[in-house]
Amino acid sequence: MSSPITPNSLRILALIGLAAAVPNRAAAQGGSRPILGNSLATAPAATPATFYAIQVTVLGPASARVDWGNFLANPKASTGTPVDNYQVWRSDLPGGPIAKVSATTMTWTDGSLRDARTYTYYVTANPAPQTTQRLTGPGTVQGQTAQVTNNNPLPLGTSNAVTVTTPSLQPPTGLTATVSASAPSTVKLSWTPAAYAQSYIVWRNGQVIGRYSGATSDVPPVPGWYDYQVASALPEQGYESVSARTPAVSAHTGPLTVLIVGGSLMWGEGLADANKIATAVGGLVQGITGQPPTIVNLAHAGAYVAPPSTDSPALAAQREAMAPLAGEVPSPYPTVRYQLLTAGPARVAPANVDLVLLEGCIHDVGFRTLLDPKTTDADLSNISLASCTAAASLIDQAQSAYPRARIFIVGYPVLISPQTDRASLNALATLSGVAAKDIETLIGVSLAPLAGVPPDPLLTTVAIVAGAAVNAAKTADSLKYLELAKRHAEIFAAEYEAVMQAKLKQQALAAQQKALLDQKAGKPADPLGSTTVMRVPAPFDPSNSYAAPNSYLWQVPTTQGHDDVFAQRQALCDVQAATRGMAGLGECLEASAGFPNRGGAAAIVNAMMPQLSKLVLAWKNAYAPK
């Protein structure tokens, strides 16, 4: 785009530029006079004139063409002195002309420009070189002269000045990254070429992987998520212009990746592998995508959200770093936070995680606190609030640690209902560490057979079921404990629900705001939708509570019934007691009690299916090999 400059300013611009280029010219304006040193003794007293206006045409980011008319054909510029050459001047090179052409040439192309810069041009019409006399020597005698040729005499005329700006080199458009079913480990990249570009630079996850003349393919080192960007490149004189990068586009190679963290519920305590929630999720993903997912299950029985308050920071760090026990063996460590933020990234690249299943809080509160008659409602509320708030904070941390993942929060059922069998409740309480005498004080009935943690839960529980505890549970006073346990279970459930609902509302608002900002910025909509955190409540009714007629929770094992892997867990508990010196063997053997059985796990999976199926189908449509 041209910017005209007035003739007077032109002339001033030309004279200033020429004077700067040839210092001797300023001294030549006074005509002939003797000057010592290297000064001119004579010089023509020419008056520059303006000739035909020049035109400057930008040819691209690195070049422009300057055109002008014949100086001698312009009556206003006629001086009677023939034009010997034309010189082209550029504002960023004040020390001299950028080009000198013959008197018969009326055009010149400048190929030394850079993109997105402003340049000003003008042209001078110049006479032939002039020969003059010069005194020689610092102490010369008058008459000692030598002929000197001035190859840059004052111009006969100066054109107007024209200012232009070169266009910036643009990135290509329409970048796509696709993976085909025939080559599931290869990402095909294509784009619409950019004007003037001579090559293209490609980035994968922020690192340059090559320079190409056009569409190309990439084979990433391992399966997972990859972001691609492309920029245009154009060689310029002594320099290469590189455009801005395209917005990133994502491609996924390999199967969908699932990370599972939590405690007994997400581990599937007491369940055979075929009946675990993780297995059901894997089957659903494979059924929709055609590929079995990569599942990393770090959950284990008894996991706390954070280290127990009784452990010093040093002891907690030591225990977190210990090799984890078998998943069936209950332990506060590794905590859910450690699983999520330390063990998880060590097992799988965080950017490659597509789905996180998260659960935590119940073990921090504990069945003992929940079922203890000495626990006040206020204390239980405060403990539950603190523990579940810590669990909710993991949602934010999961989003930061696994930026592509959708997060499912799996909730807890209400443990106790009016349909809970009272004798079985008493057994669960004492095996959780509740003192039998505290229950006796509440209900006014002896529970002697329940005292202590039984060394052989199968045989001892048979005695419980067959003995005096059953009769005691049938008394009217024994309802007091059932009512207390039910109220405590409801307090925990209410605190958990309130904390999680508040966090979900906060997350939903943040997701909406991000979607609006992305839309304003012109970013494409996320094919998986804007919702990144979803909650899966346990769909249990009172008949599904602990020891209810259609219970969805494992009961304390007896010879009449126990969980799927009791025998295997018994062997693992023996190893734990022998190698780790850990107490609580009875608690280890009974670890499944109160957690989802086969029916409970199936109910949770069914509650998860609508949201999960929709998400996985969207993932398949957007990212699975075509």
Question: How would you describe the shape?
Answer: rod-shaped
Number of strands: 24
From the N-terminal CA to the C-terminal CA, the straight-line distance is 47 Å
Structure classification: alpha+beta
How many strands, which pairing sense, and closed or not: the largest β-sheet?
6 strands, mixed
Uncertain residue segments: 1-47, 449-475
What's the structural domain tally? 3
Q: CATH architecture of the largest domain, please?
A: 3-Layer(aba) Sandwich
Arithmetic mean of pLDDT: 83
Percent in helix: 25-40%
Radius of gyration: 43 Å
What do we call the CATH homologous superfamily of the largest domain?
A: SGNH hydrolase
Assembly category: single chain
Helices, by number, come to: 16
Description:
The protein is an alpha+beta fold. It has 3 domains: 7-165, Immunoglobulin-like, CATH 2.60.40.10; 173-253, Immunoglobulins (Immunoglobulin-like, Sandwich); 257-420 and 492-621, Rossmann fold. It has helices spanning 7-21, 264-267, 277-289, 313-321, 336-347, 362-365, 367-371, 377-401, 422-431, 436-443, 457-466, 468-473, 479-520, 566-579, 585-589, 598-623, and strands at 49-50, 55-60, 63-67, 85-90, 99-102, 107-110, 118-126, 130-135, 145-150, 157-158, 162-165, 173-180, 183-192, 199-204, 207-212, 216-218, 224-236, 239-242, 249-253, 257-261, 294-297, 355-358, 406-410, 533-536. Strands 1, 4, 5, 7, 10 and 11 form a 6-stranded mixed sheet that branches. Strands 14, 15, 17, 18 and 19 form a 5-stranded antiparallel sheet that branches. Strands 21-20-22-23-24 form a 5-stranded parallel sheet, sandwiched between helices. Strand 14 and strand 15 (207-212) form a beta hairpin. It is rod-shaped and about 135 Å long.
